[in-house]
Amino acid sequence: FTNKVLIFGGEILQVLSIEARQSITNMVVEAGATCGMMLVDAVTVNYLWPLLQKKYSIQENALEDLGKQWNCDEGCEYDEIIDFDITGLKPRATVGYSPGDSVEVATLEKTPVNQVYIGSCTNGRIEDFRIAAYIFRNDERPLAEGVRCIINPSTPDVMNKMVEEGLFATFMEKGCCITNPNCG
Predict the structure, then answer these.
(1) Bridge partners of 103?
(2) Rounded to whole angstroms, what are the CA distances from 161 to 16, 53, 118, 135, 168?
């Protein structure tokens, strides 16, 4: 995919949050692509509505206009179209420094862990930390001895939301190390 623009579309987009879409589009550089794009749809317009309502009276008009501006023209030609069936996709974790070094989480059940890293510029979204905090709050055990858990929010805004929602306190109570917002 070197020097390509990767464009994502399909039914799956309807269930992906904007934050999940951002994670996917940010990761295309790991595949060598120049950039990644998601097609504009109702989820996009709804997310941007606080800004768009200054120009548009109803969301349908914004969707039509932005779709014409940003989505691919009907009948356009692509270098390649790849269909992915992700219905059976299982959670994965990296076992090295590259996203390409990943395995299904289930295969790591008996693997000793000495460090857990949650976040970064790609996956340090508030929804990621809400999930992690939910898991910590529902497990009374402390972090295992010798395990370091690093929490890395992507932006100051995400960190502020973590504080407002009590997530920051949850991570601190578990003994996590919380970094400044950065790309890790």
Answers:
(1) 93
(2) 20, 24, 16, 18, 9
* DSSP 3-state of 147: coil
Range with lowest mean pLDDT among 29-33, 37-41, 98-102, 163-167: 98-102
- Per-residue model confidence as pLDDT tens digits over 76-128: 999 999 998 888 889 888 887 777 788 999 998 888 889 988 988 777 889 88
* Residue of 37, 34, 61, 38 whose CA lies nearest to 49: 61
Q: For residue 182, which of 151, 161, 160 has the smallest C-alpha distance? A: 151
> String of b and e for 85-103 (b: at least 16 CB within 10 Å)?
eeeeeeeeeeeeeeeeeee
Six token digits for residue 145: 């001895």
**pTM value?**
0.74
Q: CA–CA separation, 26 vs 38, rounded Å?
A: 11
| Gap between the Cα atoms of 123 and 22, Å rounded | 9
- Which is it for the CA torsion 142, 147, 148, 154, positive or negative? negative
Q: What is the CA radius of gyration of the chain?
A: 19
Helix or strand run (H / E) with residue 180 = none
Task: Name the maximum alpha-carbon separation found in the chain.
Answer: 58
